C-alpha cells in the first residue's frame, strides 16, 4: 500500500497521471488505515491466545471450576478484544473521516 | 414505500462511526419502553409463576418423602406384629407338645404298671401252681414210698420220716 | 465515488450502513430496534399469559430459560445472590442487544441495528448512568468518588499518577469501550458478510468463464461467516450484559 502511495506521489509530482492532491491524500490515508489496523491486531491476537490457552489449561486441571473460568475468560477476552476493535474503528476513521 | 427499506441512502453522509440522532433516540425509546414493561409487569409475573411451580414441586417432593417414611414405619410395625404372633404360636406349640408328652408319659407309666401287676399276678399263680404240683408230687411220692416201704418191711413207716426223706430227696435232686 | 480493486467495485461504506427513511426519521435500523423491543415484549407477554402451574412449553419455556440463564450465568457469577433484583434490567439488555444483533444474518433484513453507533452509544450511556447512580446510592456521593478516584492502599505521592488514570479508566474508557466493542464487532461482521457476498456475486457474474467456479470459495466463506455471526451476536450480547453486571458490582461495593 505504501509503495503504491509512494509511486502515486512520484507520478503526481511528475504530472503524468491525472492524480490530484485529494486522491493522494486518500491513498496515504488508506495506507495508514491498513497499518493502523494491522498493528492494532498484533497485541490483542497474542493476548487472546494466551487467555484461551490458560483458560483451557485451568479447565482441564479443575473441570469443576469450568463455569467460573469460562465467565472470567470471556471478561478477559472482552477487555483484550476492545484494543483490536479500537484499532478497527481508527481504521474506519482514517479511511472515511 | 416498503421498497425503500431495501434501498440504501446514496449520499456520502456523515462519518460512519458517528451516532445518528434519530437512530439513537428511537433505540433509546424502544429500549426504555421494553425495560419498563419487563421490569414492572412481565418479569415479576413470569418469575412468580416459576417460583410457585418450583414451590409446588418442592412441597410435592416433601410430601412424597413423608409418605415414604410413613409407609416404611407401617411396614416395620407390621413386621413386628408378625414376629410377635409367630413367637406366640411357637410358645403355644411348645406348651401343647409338653402337655402331650406328659399325658403320653402318664399313660405309658400306667400301662407299664398294669403290665407289671399282671406279670406279678402270673408269677404268683405260677409259683402257687408249682408249689401245688410239688405238694401233690411229694404226697404221691410219699404215698408210693410209704406203700413200698410197707411192702418191703411189712409195717407202715412213720409218716413224718417219709415226708422228710421225700423232701430231702426232691430238694437234693433239684439242687 | 466508488473504490475499485482489480475491477472489483466496492461501494462506499455509507451505502452499506445508511438507509432511506421509510417514514420521517424511521429507517431500517430504527425499525430493527423497535422490532427487537416488540418481539422481546411479545415473547414475555405470551409467556406471562400461560398457566404457570403446567410444565413450561413454547414461549414460556424460552422465557424461563432466559431468566434462569441471566440468573445463573450472569447475576450469580458476578453480583451474587444479593444482586438478583438486577435480573429484569440485565435480561432486558441481553434480549434487546441479541435481537438487535441477530438481524445481521436474517436474509432480506441483513442489518444489525448495533452496527450503527446509535443503539450501542445509548446503551453504554445508560449503563454508565446506572452504575454511577448505584455507586452513589450505595456509598454516598463522596464515598463513591473517593473509592473510585483514590483507591486505598496506594502511597499518597502516587495519587498524582493514579487518580487521573482511575478517572479515565472508570469514567471515560468504560462506557466508550462498552459501546465500541459491541458496535465494532457487529460492524466488522456486517462488512465481512458484505465483502464476501459482493465478491461471490462478482465472480459468479464474471465475464471470464474460468472465474465462475472460483466464486464457490468466497461463497463457502460467506456461509461460514454467517454461522460465525450467529455465535458473535450471542457472545456480544452476553459480554455486554456481563460487563454491565461487573460494573454495577464494582460500583456497589467499595474497592479492596
Explain the overall architecture:
The complex is a heterotrimer of chains A (97), B (175) and C (256). Chain A is built from three helices and no strands. Chain A is mainly alpha-helical. Chain A has a single domain, classed as F1F0 ATP synthase subunit C (F1FO ATP Synthase). In chain A, helix 1 packs antiparallel against helix 2 and helix 2 packs antiparallel against helix 3. Chain A is rod-shaped, with a radius of gyration of 21 Å. Chain B is an all-alpha fold. In chain B, helix 1 crosses helix 2. The longest helix of chain B has 133 residues. Chain B is rod-shaped. The model of chain B has no long low-confidence stretch (mean pLDDT 86). The radius of gyration of chain C is 23 Å and the shape is globular. Chain C has a two-stranded antiparallel ribbon with strand order 1-2. In chain C, strand 1 and strand 2 form a beta hairpin. Chain C has one domain. Chain C is mainly alpha-helical and 256 residues long. Chains in contact: A-B, A-C, B-C. Chains A and C meet through helix 3 of A and helix 3, helix 7 and helix 9 of C.
What share of the residues of chain B does DSSP label as strand, in percent? under 5%
- C-alpha end-to-end distance of chain B: 162 Å
pLDDT averaged residue by residue of chain C: 88
Biggest sheet of chain C, open or closed, and with what strands and sense? 2 strands, antiparallel
Number of strands of chain B: 0
Through-space gap between termini of chain C: 55 Å
Chain-wise SSE layout:
The complex is a heterotrimer of chains A (97), B (175) and C (256).
Chain A (H helix, E strand, L loop, with lengths): L1 H13 L6 H41 L4 H31 L1
Chain B lengths: L20 H133 L5 H16 L1
Helix pairs in contact in B: 1-2
Chain C lengths: L2 E3 L2 E3 L2 H5 L10 H22 L8 H22 L7 H15 L16 H22 L1 H9 L9 H46 L6 H4 L1 H37 L4
Antiparallel strand pairs in C: 1-2
Amino acid at each position: 500500500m505504501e509503495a503504491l502511495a509512494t509511486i502515486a506521489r512520484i507520478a503526481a509530482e511528475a504530472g503524468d497521471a491525472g492524480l490530484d492532491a485529494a486522491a493522494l491524500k486518500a491513498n496515504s490515508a488508506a495506507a495508514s488505515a491498513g497499518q493502523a489496523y494491522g498493528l492494532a491486531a498484533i497485541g490483542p491476537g497474542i493476548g487472546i491466545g494466551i487467555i484461551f490457552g490458560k483458560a483451557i489449561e485451568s479447565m482441564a486441571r479443575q473441570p469443576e471450576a469450568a463455569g467460573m473460568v469460562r465467565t472470567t475468560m470471556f471478561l478477559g477476552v472482552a477487555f483484550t478484544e476492545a484494543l483490536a476493535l479500537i484499532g478497527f474503528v481508527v481504521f474506519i476513521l482514517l479511511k472515511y473521516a | 414505500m416498503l421498497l425503500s427499506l431495501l434501498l440504501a441512502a446514496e449520499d456520502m453522509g456523515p462519518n460512519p462511526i458517528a451516532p445518528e440522532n434519530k437512530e439513537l433516540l428511537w433505540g433509546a425509546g424502544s429500549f426504555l419502553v421494553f425495560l419498563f414493561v419487563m421490569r414492572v409487569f412481565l418479569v415479576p409475573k413470569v418469575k412468580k409463576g416459576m417460583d410457585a411451580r418450583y414451590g409446588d414441586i418442592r412441597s410435592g417432593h416433601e410430601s412424597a418423602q413423608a409418605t415414604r417414611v410413613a409407609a416404611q414405619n407401617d411396614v416395620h410395625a407390621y413386621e413386628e406384629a408378625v414376629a410377635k404372633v409367630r413367637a406366640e404360636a411357637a410358645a403355644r406349640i411348645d406348651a401343647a407338645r409338653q402337655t402331650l408328652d406328659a399325658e403320653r408319659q402318664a399313660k405309658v407309666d400306667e400301662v407299664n404298671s398294669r403290665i407289671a401287676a399282671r406279670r406279678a399276678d402270673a408269677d404268683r399263680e405260677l409259683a402257687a401252681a408249682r408249689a401245688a404240683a410239688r405238694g401233690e408230687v411229694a404226697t404221691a411220692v410219699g404215698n408210693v414210698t410209704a406203700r413200698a416201704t410197707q411192702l418191703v418191711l411189712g409195717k407202715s413207716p412213720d409218716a413224718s420220716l417219709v415226708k422228710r426223706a421225700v423232701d430231702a430227696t426232691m430238694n437234693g435232686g433239684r439242687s | 465515488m466508488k473504490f475499485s480493486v482489480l475491477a472489483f467495485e466496492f461501494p462506499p461504506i455509507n451505502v452499506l450502513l445508511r438507509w432511506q427513511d421509510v417514514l420521517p426519521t424511521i429507517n431500517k435500523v430504527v425499525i430493527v430496534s423497535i422490532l427487537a423491543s416488540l418481539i422481546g415484549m411479545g415473547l414475555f407477554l405470551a409467556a406471562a399469559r400461560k398457566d404457570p402451574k403446567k410444565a413450561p412449553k413454547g414461549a414460556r419455556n424460552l422465557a424461563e430459560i432466559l431468566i434462569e440463564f441471566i440468573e445463573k450465568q450472569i447475576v450469580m457469577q458476578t453480583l451474587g445472590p444479593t444482586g438478583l433484583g438486577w435480573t429484569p434490567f440485565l435480561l432486558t439488555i441481553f434480549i434487546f442487544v441479541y435481537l438487535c444483533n441477530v438481524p445481521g444474518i436474517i436474509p432480506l433484513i441483513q442489518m444489525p441495528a448495533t452496527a450503527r453507533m446509535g443503539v450501542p452509544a445509548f446503551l453504554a450511556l445508560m449503563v454508565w448512568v446506572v452504575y454511577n447512580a448505584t455507586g452513589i446510592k450505595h456509598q454516598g456521593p463522596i464515598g463513591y468518588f473517593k473509592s473510585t478516584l483514590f483507591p486505598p492502599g496506594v502511597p499518597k505521592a502516587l495519587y498524582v499518577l493514579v487518580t487521573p488514570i482511575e478517572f479515565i479508566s472508570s469514567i471515560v474508557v468504560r462506557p466508550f469501550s462498552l459501546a465500541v466493542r459491541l458496535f465494532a464487532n457487529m460492524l466488522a461482521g456486517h462488512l465481512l458478510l458484505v465483502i464476501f457476498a459482493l465478491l461471490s456475486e462478482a465472480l459468479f457474474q464474471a465475464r471470464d468463464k474460468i472465474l465462475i467456479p472460483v466464486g464457490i470459495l468466497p461463497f463457502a466463506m460467506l456461509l461460514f461467516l454467517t454461522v460465525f455471526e450467529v455465535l458473535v451476536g450471542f457472545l456480544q450480547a452476553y459480554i455486554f450484559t456481563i460487563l454491565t453486571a461487573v460494573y454495577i458490582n464494582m460500583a456497589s461495593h467499595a474497592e479492596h
